[in-house]
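Troubleshooting entry. The earlier prediction with coenzyme A gave an output that would not parse, so I re-checked the input for stray whitespace and re-submitted. Clean input:
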Amino acid sequence: MKSSAKQGSLIVSTGSAVPDFTINNYQISQIVETSDEWILARTGISERRLLTDYNHSVIDLAVEASKQALEKIDMDPLKIDLIILATSSPNDLFGSASQLQAKIKAFNAVAFDLTAACSGFVIALVTASQFLQTGNYNNILIVGADALSKWTNWSDRSTCILFGDGAGAAILQSCSLQNNEILGFHLSTDGNYSDQLSLAYQNQYSPHPSLKLAQGSFNYIQMNGREVYKFAISKVPESILLCLNSLNLSADDVNWLLLHQANDRILKAVADKLSIGSDKIISNLNKYGNTSAASIPLVLDQALSENKISKGDIVVVSGFGAGLTWGTVVLRWMSD
Ligand code: COA
């Protein structure tokens, strides 16, 4: 954190929500040519949750996760100054954060969406901490929520095995600089590789013969799995080391690696490159798959409910994905 900061930031509560419907690897093998053995060996995923209910949307998941976080600390939603909703699968392209604001009755909060795919929560965390450091806001709700099942091609076995739906929320509060939890961050994008993982808009037709205007819609998720894998295992360790070094910390100081839950092999390869024991990896990939912007707050909420993280622990949080964008935040956990 720069010395110009007026105040620190602290994660004071978390919450999470997943849909009820579970689809396991065997059930997916009834849809595309694959097997439980193949999926488990290549990804570490056994099952994932899908938003199948016609009347429920990604915002309902975000609302549930947010309400949980508010209730845990008995916080009046009117105290929230800002809501940042990290999502790439909104209900409304103009932004869905305002729907969340209304549903949780956080009427004093300004609310906006942040689109950065699987790095969305990390970037939301950094963005929120900037508003807190300057002293402009005191209470910020950040939510990572995605329902990529809506944008998955269920005939494409290289992508449909990976993704699940979910939401995770965190409430950040201003605090004294001594209690600051967010020690530092490092964020990067390389847009030259944006076509390696995309959910792209495509022009299709002109709505009126006399109007030279193409209109279209969004495609399914397209991914070059091998390239994304190579990108993740080279850039994520680099980002973590840069961030740790800037704080005069080393990989030996890390108590927990809380990475975007994309693939078990990626998590292990990142830990190996940093010589961090796999017992320090926090993971729930097996049960939920890759829930995009939701994956980090979902697994954080779970780790906290299991009392895994203790006061003083150094927690390295890294997100990576479409963009290609990646980033790290180093936390010193301050709550008991
Ligand atoms: N079941 C069975 N076989 C499959 C399959 C599936 N679900 N998906 C692909 N295959 C096949 C391929 O067709 C290919 O067959 P071929 O050799 O006959 O051509 C073979 O398996 C190997 O394909 P490849 O794409 O090289 O597999 P992989 O070992 O790279 O694993 C991923 C594929 C997607 C699991 C892996 O690339 C990956 O996890 N990448 C990162 C993706 C990711 O995390 N994305 C999100 C980032 S936020």
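This one parsed fine. The longest strand covers residues 8-17.
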